[in-house]
Amino acid sequence: MDFNMEFVVYTALTVLVWILSFTWLLPFLTILKFSKTCRNKWFSWFFVKVCAPPKGPVLMKMRKQAFNRLKDHLEDRKKNTPLEILEIGIGGGANLQFYPENSNLTAVDMNPSFMTYFEEMRQKHPQINLKRAVITMAEDMHEIEDDSFDVVICTYTLCSVKSVRSALNEIKRVLKPGGKFLYLEHILYNSSSWNSWLQKFATPLWEIYCNGCILTRKTDEEIRKTGFKDVVIDKHHPKDMWLVVRSQIVGIATK
To answer: Which ranges does the record mark as transmembrane (predicted)?
Structure first.
């Protein structure tokens, strides 16, 4: 599809969603806005059962690309020693298939409604040792000890935290010296582009329907400001992704 026409189509669809949200969908929108429980249950089902199937191939391609980076950074690892991994925003466990061998997992998510889907996925990957699952926000992982993980994984999660800076500081705190932070996130387009305008236009509703997900985050800039070493950030625009989340970063950084 021609870029200009694609922008027009996505803008028209966004306008339609705004209209529907304040007419037929207003009761549903109101429930999601004011009920965290309903919002959690809705989004976990929507993300796993509705979003993942049609976008599965492109999402898996991006996830695999991220984990290939991690593999390159773990070449000198002694495989008989368990790798201590913390995944923030574990969701339905879509990343488990890419985990290195002999991994001990601590799973963190702020949405307890994901746990049923996560457990179903975990049963398919018995080689991963789940040490514990913690329901908490990434900005306040006080149950997690300092300097305790070899790897922290965060995919499509920093868009939904209350404070990116606080979450990144917590990630840095729990990593061992020399530990790796692996990330895959969608970000704001160049602020001068029409696509960034569309993201800003869509964000107020998107944030409600997608349980706090914000389309206008500059997560790449925040990662660089946190004080990690050897920060690698590559930008991608996979054509099969929806336009509003097509601007993505994948990378790895070292504590």
So the answer is: 12-32
Distance CA 94, CA 31 (A): 28
Is 240 in contact with 55 (CB distance < 8 Å)?
Answer: yes
Q: How many Å apart are CA 87 and CA 95, to the nearest integer? A: 9
Residues in the chain: 255
Q: How far is CA 235 from the centre of its chain?
A: 15
Sequence-distant (6+) residues with CB within 8 A of 94 are: 52, 59, 60, 63, 121, 155
Model pLDDT for residues 58-98, shown as the tens digit of each residue: 999 999 999 999 999 888 887 788 999 999 999 999 999 99
pTM for this predicted structure = 0.94
Q: What DSSP element (H or E) covers 119?
A: helix 115-122
Identity of the residue numbered 225 = K
